């Protein structure tokens, strides 16, 4: 984030993004999470980066987002 340095985002591993599903997701997030817990942006990736032991590689996955 330009002002705070970091911000909450949501990464979803999915091939497709439906506007209808995103609206439903945002509505659910607003009812379940506080203002400060809610993601500022939602990103969709076809595949996350995984380690050989099948753990998500957070930094590498984030770099995929930053490239786009």
Structure description:
With 68 residues, the protein is α+β, with helices and mostly antiparallel strands. The protein is built from two helices and two strands, in the order βαβα. It has helices at residues 19-32, 58-67, and strands spanning 9-13, 41-45. It has a two-stranded parallel sheet. Helix 1 links the parallel strand 1 and strand 2. The radius of gyration is 13 Å and the shape is globular.
Radius of gyration, whole Å: 13 Å
Structural class: alpha+beta
The biggest sheet, with number of strands, parallel, antiparallel or mixed sense and barrel status, is: 2 strands, parallel
Which word captures the global form? globular
Kindly, what is the distance between the CA atoms of the first and last residues, rounded to a whole number of angstroms? 16 Å
Task: Show unreliable segments.
Answer: none
Counted beta strands: 2
Task: Report the order of strands and helices.
Answer: EHEH
Tell me the number of helical segments per DSSP (H or I, 4 or more residues long).
2
